[in-house]
Amino acid sequence: MAVWLIPLIVAAVIGIGLYKNVNIYETLTDGAKEGMYMWIAIVPHLVIMMAAVAVFRASGAAAELASWMAPFLSLFGIPADVVPLALIRPISGSATLAMLDQLMQEHGADSYIAKLAAIMQGSTDTTLYVLAVYFGAAGIKKTGDALKIGLLADAAAFFFAIIAASWLL
Amino acid sequence: MVSAAFAFLMLSGFLFAAVNGTMADVNEALFQSMEQSIELALSLAGILLFWTGVMKTAEGAGIVKALANTVQPLLGRLFPEIPDGHPVFGYIASNMAANFFGLGNAATPIGLKTMRELKKLNGDQDTASRSMVTFLALNTAAVTLIPTTVIAISLKHGASNPTDIILPALFATVMSAFFAILLDRYYAHKRIR
């Protein structure tokens, strides 16, 4: 579907622009110039945040924290195997995709664990990345309650993922 | 709070590496991440420039404003700070629609542009306004109709019914988005009091 959607949207914008006598080449390039400033604004956030996430994961601290939390989280019906994924999800999207791949390899794509992990991955976003990039582009320094809300919403998504995964059993 | 999160990740990582002898891995990962972050940034650059260009054209053609008027009754209550009929409603709606239909490529640039517009509305201060926190909460909740990447991985591993997770995932993401909105309202009220 996306194959048709994007060209359709772009064509509609250009068509309506021409009809309304907009100098479309100028607005396209002017807008792109604005995008360039935004890009410059987000690069520092990407470099700094990804460095922290890399240190946290490579040290083994992430895996250790997951194994500490597993007994507690199992009280809420989260299997120990998906705890690392839940823990890393808000800070690294590529790492959790690799974990999902691994879980499917180990338990089979039709297993409860694979389905639960897939629902968890599919119903959340990389909160820290979204926050760093969105606020970085706008030059926001004081982020208010955004991180807290984002992380709590992730926890809620995992809770509802457990409920929803039981439908597939 | 972002500083605290950053410090926690870095310092607990270094401490753990010191105790468990993984310092060599940490060093390697640290330098690798610097390369990867620039690669990610570069892969994002073209998309960002292209879509901000398209959005500026859409704005000039009056499409953003027309969209804003359409979604006003729906989104107006979520964003009480934004004046009625302001074009930024059109940006917010475009971002949400792009996210919903899995057009992540377009959603991020439009989202960044939306943040800039919201900042202008807030008198260019470097503190996040209530609308910005609400908008971010909607984005981190990631309301998507079809999680395509996840389905692709399921397919690769021979799932007998790889699309059966669509409905459960949609349920979880919509519920978490509602939860995020409730939290956002709660914290906004707490700040006013």
TrEMBL record, chain A:
Task: Indicate the transmembrane segments per the record.
Answer: 36-56, 68-92, 112-137, 149-168
Domain Nucleoside transporter/FeoB GTPase Gate as annotated: residue spans: 41-141
What Gene Ontology cellular-component terms does the record carry? plasma membrane
Q: Which domain of life is it from?
A: Bacteria
Keywords, sorted A to Z: Membrane, Transmembrane, Transmembrane helix
Q: Name one Pfam family in it.
A: Gate
Q: Please identify the protein, giving its name as recorded.
A: Spore maturation protein
- Lineage, highest ranks first: Bacteria, Bacillati, Bacillota, Bacilli, Bacillales
From TrEMBL, chain B:
Domain Nucleoside transporter/FeoB GTPase Gate span(s) in chain numbering = 42-152
Top-rank taxon: Bacteria
Q: What UniProt keywords are attached to this protein's entry?
A: Membrane, Signal, Transmembrane, Transmembrane helix
Which InterPro entries does this one have?
Gate_dom
Q: Say if the entry is tagged with keyword Lipid metabolism.
A: no
> Has keyword Metal-binding?
no
- The region annotated as signal peptide is 1-17
**What stretches pass through the bilayer?**
88-112, 133-153, 165-183
What is this protein's record name? Spore maturation protein
